[in-house]
Structures are given as C-alpha cells and as structure tokens.
Amino acid sequence: MGDSWLEVSVLLAALEAAIAKEIERRRLESPLMIGIHTGGAWLAERLHAGLALAEPLGSLNISFYRDDFSRVGMHPQVKPSKLPFSVEDRDILLIDDVIYSGRTIRAALNEIFDYGRPRQVVLGVLIERDGRELPIQPDCLGARIELKASQRIKLAGPDPLRLKLLTV
C-alpha cells in the first residue's frame, strides 16, 4: 500500500460521491448532516458544501455519551453539541473521520436519539479500519484499510486536512 490512500481530497471525493449515490438510492429529501467532533465535523463542513445541502449543518460532541467516560475522563476543551434543527422523523447523514471499534458511532446514535427519533441514519466515514467491537458498519466510505494492532490513523486539521498514521 503506497501513500496515495493518505490523500484526504481523494478520499473525501469518494465519500461525497458515495453519499450522493446513497441519497439518490434511498430517495432522501432534505437530509440533515451531522458531523462528530472534531474530525467528522471538519469533514461534514466540506461535504455539506459539496453536496449543496439546504438544511443547516449540525455537530455532535459525544464526550458525555462515551462508554469509557469513567475511565478516560473529560477532555478539558469539551464543546457542546449543536443541532440547529429537529431530528424527529428526519433523514440524518452522520459523518465521522475513522470508524474503528464502533463505540464512537454508538455514542453518537445515543445522543441523536436523546434529541428525537430520526426516520433513518446514514453513516458516512472517511476511513473504515479493521478492529470492530460493535456491529456497526458505514453505509458510505472513502476507503477501507487494515492496520496493525499497534497502529492508529488520525485526521488532523482543520486546514489543511491530513491523515496521520501513528504507532502506539
């Protein structure tokens, strides 16, 4: 695997095309887009503009909803979620940077359902990697990769957006 898969612009274009196709396939009307803080929110800003969505953009900070909150504690710069719309019976495009264990997405879904019951949620991620712990899969993605257990992939940004491969 070369470094070409690290090009965020290429992956973002693939994700945007997959989301556009899914919007058409499911016949979504005026879908709401929500980005998960921080990387998912950065991506959602670009996708929201690229897809020319009419509804305002929302963002979630799932810190309080994580199932490991008691172990890892609170990040000192926690920002509140911002959903400038009702999610009740609406089609939601949920965006994140990397899906790994599935726990971030589970936390995001829990928070969304605290705001109301959406009609459906379409999950879009820039990178799907191996290592799932929960049965949660993306509907749309930029790329799927396999990493060693000691490796992590992180989106840095917001400008420019770039992927970093880390060894832990």
Structure description:
- Helix content is 28%, strand content 27%.
- The chain has helices at residues 8-25, 39-50, 69-72, 103-115, and strands spanning 32-36, 58-60, 91-99, 120-129, 140-145, 151-156, 162-167.
- The chain is an alpha/beta fold.
- It is globular, with a radius of gyration of 15 Å.
- It is built from 4 helices and 7 strands.
- The relative contact order is 0.20.
Outline the secondary-structure elements.
Elements: H1 8-25, E1 32-36, H2 39-50, E2 58-60, H3 69-72, E3 91-99, H4 103-115, E4 120-129, E5 140-145, E6 151-156, E7 162-167
Parallel strand pairs: 1-2, 1-3, 3-4, 4-5
Antiparallel strand pairs: 6-7
What is the mean predicted local confidence, pLDDT?
91
Low-confidence stretches: none
Shape: globular
What Rg is obtained from the alpha carbons, in whole angstroms?
A: 15 Å
What is the rounded distance between the termini? Answer: 20 Å
| SS field, number of helical segments | 4
Question: Main beta sheet, described?
Answer: 5 strands, parallel
Name of the CATH architecture = 3-Layer(aba) Sandwich
Helicity level:
25-40%
SSE pattern: HEHEHEHEEEE
Q: What spatial order of strands do you see in the largest sheet? A: 2-1-3-4-5
> Roughly what fraction of the amino acids lie in strands?
25-35%
User: Number of domains in the coordinates?
Assistant: 1
What is the CATH level 1 assignment?
A: Alpha Beta
Question: How many strands in all?
Answer: 7
Structural class of the helices, strands and pairings?
alpha/beta
The third-level CATH topology is Rossmann fold
